[in-house]
């Protein structure tokens, strides 16, 4: 099969869908791999590295889409890419359809097969292609939160871990999944007072056993969220309903009850966000202020650490990519239920319930 990797064009997106090691695996399996020139440069992988691994370099995204059947990406196609996508293409990437009706309609109109990294799901309900980026985003949320709590960045001017004689910051984490767990570990490691909330008592029990002593678990309901938000210096939104829009837990009205200069980091922004006032931002202009609260809502947080992110992503995606390349998307999905859960669209039809429900289709 001819596999194509275009250069990512989302603002400040430096990741690429495959490393030279991944190219080598595909090449060894008998597939032809085509990389758009400089697609990997932002992650530290040069065209020469890909050529040495067996890839052919093409000059334009148009050439990639014209030549290849299977297209590997990192982020969802943008408007300038819509016309390049045809019904014979299989696109394997993070789509997050529930956050964009325009993207949903464009991919339906294309007739392409859309396999979404974020809905590939194992029998234990884990999301193997979302986990590595969730791990990166969870850790980064605290790194960025600590930075934007600085006064010069618009925050309260509070050190996350405090110093002897001065209280550390209060960190509230909404959601006890991969993002939330990694965020809690990082915040606790820096010495913050951390509260992590979830609606699953079983998950809260697990977190209570594995997280440090300065992390408190708390059941998530509207009363508890409000009370904790009032005390928080940093809030991390880490909710995920696979393929669906994230529920809103922090309303606009709640902002006026929070500490001025507090920071909210909405990691769920690419699924619509769990903070009502969130809107996607970029690494070039990552924050804005609403009612005195600093909002950081970058939709591709792992793009800021592309070498780590690209390597972690390729490690996770390659087993599935090889199945699709070896067998074709349909046989691969028939043979592997995990991959079948990633099928969001084909033939101009929606195959993932949460996406259909998001847009009343």
CATH superfamily of the largest domain: NAD(P)-binding Rossmann-like Domain
Averaged pLDDT? 96
- What is the third-level CATH name, the topology of the largest domain? Rossmann fold
- Give the biggest beta sheet: 8 strands, mixed
Structural class assignment: alpha/beta
**What series of H and E elements makes up the topology?**
EHEHEHEHEHEHEHEHEHEHEEEHHHEEH
CATH class of the largest domain: Alpha Beta
What does this molecule look like?
- The chain is an alpha/beta fold and 361 residues long.
- The protein has helices spanning 20-28, 47-53, 61-67, 79-82, 101-110, 131-148, 178-189, 201-210, 222-231, 252-255, 306-327, 329-335, 337-340, 353-358, and strands at residues 2-5, 32-36, 56-58, 70-72, 90-93, 113-116, 170-174, 193-198, 215-219, 234-237, 263-266, 287-290, 293-296, 343-346, 349-350.
- The protein has two domains: 2-120 and 306-358, NAD(P)-binding Rossmann-like Domain (Rossmann fold, 3-Layer(aba) Sandwich), CATH 3.40.50; 131-303, 3-Layer(aba) Sandwich (Rossmann fold).
- It contains 14 helices and 15 strands.
- It has an eight-stranded mixed β-sheet, with helices on both faces.
- The two termini are 33 Å apart.
- The model has no long low-confidence stretch (mean pLDDT 96).
């Amino acid at each position: 099969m001819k596999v194509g990797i275009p250069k990512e064009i989302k603002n400040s997106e430096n990741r690429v869908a495959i490393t030279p090691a991944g190219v080598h695996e595909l090449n060894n399996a008998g597939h032809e791999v085509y990389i758009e020139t400089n697609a990997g440069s932002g992650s530290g992988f040069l065209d020469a590295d890909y050529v040495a691994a067996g890839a052919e370099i093409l000059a334009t995204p148009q050439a990639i889409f014209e030549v290849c059947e299977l297209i590997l990406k990192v982020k969802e196609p943008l408007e300038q890419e819509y016309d390049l996508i045809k019904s014979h293409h299989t696109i394997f990437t993070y789509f997050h359809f529930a956050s964009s009706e325009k993207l949903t309609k464009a991919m339906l109109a294309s007739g392409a097969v859309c396999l979404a990294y974020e809905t590939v799901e194992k029998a234990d309900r884990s999301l193997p292609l979302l986990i590595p980026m969730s791990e990166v985003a969870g850790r980064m949320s605290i790194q960025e939160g600590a930075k934007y709590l600085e006064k010069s960045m618009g925050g309260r001017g509070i050190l996350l871990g405090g110093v002897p004689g001065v209280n550390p910051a209060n960190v509230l984490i909404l959601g006890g999944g991969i993002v939330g767990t990694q965020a809690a570990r990082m915040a606790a490691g820096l010495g913050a007072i951390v509260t992590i909330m979830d609606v699953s008592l079983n998950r809260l029990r697990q977190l209570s056993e594995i997280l440090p002593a300065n992390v408190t678990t708390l059941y998530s309901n509207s009363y508890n969220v409000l009370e904790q938000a009032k005390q928080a210096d940093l809030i991390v939104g880490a909710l995920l309903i696979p393929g669906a829009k994230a529920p809103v837990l922090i309303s606009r009205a709640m902002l006026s009850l929070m500490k001025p200069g507090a920071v909210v980091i909405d990691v769920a922004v690419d699924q619509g966000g769990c903070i009502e006032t969130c809107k996607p931002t970029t690494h070039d202009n990552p924050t804005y202020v609403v009612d005195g609260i600093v909002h950081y809502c970058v939709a591709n947080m792992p793009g800021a650490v592309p070498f780590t992110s690209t390597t972690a992503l390729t490690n996770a995606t390659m087993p599935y990519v090889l199945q699709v390349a070896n067998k074709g998307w349909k046989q691969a999905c028939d043979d592997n239920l995990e991959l079948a859960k990633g099928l969001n669209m084909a033939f101009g039809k929606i195959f993932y319930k949460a996406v259909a429900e998001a847009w009343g289709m």
